[in-house]
Amino acid sequence: MTQAVSLPIGHAAPAVPPGHYRFQHVVKAELAKITTLRSTAITLGLAVVLALLVSGLVANAQLHHGPGFYQGFDPTQSSLAGMIVAALTSGVLGAMLITGEYSSGTIRTTLAASPRRPMLLAAKIAVTTAVMVLFCELLSLASFFLGQAILSGGGAPSASLGTPGATRAVLMTGLFVSLLALMSFGFGLIVRSTAGAIASFVGVVFVLPLVMRGISEPDVRYVPTQILTNSVMSTVHQPGQGGIIHDLSPAAGLLLMVLYAAVCVTAGVVLFMGRDA
């Protein structure tokens, strides 16, 4: 066994006594991988640009309307619209953080350096979760403040973090999008292919709602994108069609997303533990 977990070229390995590497050493190695990958910086940068662009455009589209237009208007939900795009880019990154090692073959090196698979997976999941939660929360806040600046500057109804439900919506949106990235990470563990994991993520998150609308309209409220837009982001109650379809509460929607992510990651962990690299 090697004396320490592997790190990207140019980073010195931590001094670890032979055969005594610990969880914190694996976490440092995984964190170094994520922060030094060019694909990570590109994907996160793209997520920031697209999310803020969409939030700005959507907020701008709400300006200069008559009073009747703003009946039931939700300024918080409007300013967070860009986080739907961030959900897609975060899903791509979540998949790449695990499948990149399979496509490059470095997963064998990682397993040789850290042969304790439970510890390795725990470190990967912990680092991925921490990075995505921090990034998504900051991006959600940035989208909110940008949208509100545009709305208030144009004379449209706006909100602040003190507006009832606004802080909850902003924080839960960031957390929800990070859970989507973790779900995509689980897909990556399952299929071990970047293209396959991204296709699975897009299919479940963006294509499934379209199919569900033709099969069972009321059940659309249980798919991730519907939960995100109509439950988590929303601060103004919008009744369903004919008052029959009721969206999930924000807490119930978030808990369901936790379950989705947990199922995908658990399935990936089981497969990872039982098959070769």
Folded structure, characterized:
It contains ten helices and no strands. The protein is mainly alpha-helical and 277 residues long. The chain has one domain (23-61, 71-274). The protein is elongated, with a radius of gyration of 21 Å. The two termini are 17 Å apart. Mean pLDDT is 87; it is low at 1-16.
User: What is the helical fraction, as a range of percent?
Assistant: 55-70%
Tally of DSSP β-strands:
0
Silhouette: elongated
How many structural domains are formed by the residues? 1
Q: Low-confidence parts, pLDDT < 50 over ≥5 residues?
A: 1-16
Q: Tell me about the largest β-sheet.
A: none
Instruction: Tell me the span between the first and last alpha carbons.
Output: 17 Å
Give the percentage of residues in beta strands.
Answer: under 5%
- Computed structural class: mainly alpha
Mean pLDDT across all residues, rounded?
A: 87
Order of helices and strands: HHHHHHHHHH
**Rg calc:** 21 Å
Number of helices: 10
What is the compact description of this entry?
This protein has 277 residues and is an all-alpha fold.
Features:
single chain; 277 residues; mainly alpha; 10 helices; elongated
Write the SSE topology.
Elements: H1 23-36, H2 38-61, H3 75-79, H4 82-104, H5 106-113, H6 117-153, H7 166-191, H8 194-215, H9 224-232, H10 250-274
Helix pairs in contact: 1-6, 2-4, 2-6, 4-6, 4-7, 4-8, 6-7, 7-8, 7-10, 9-10
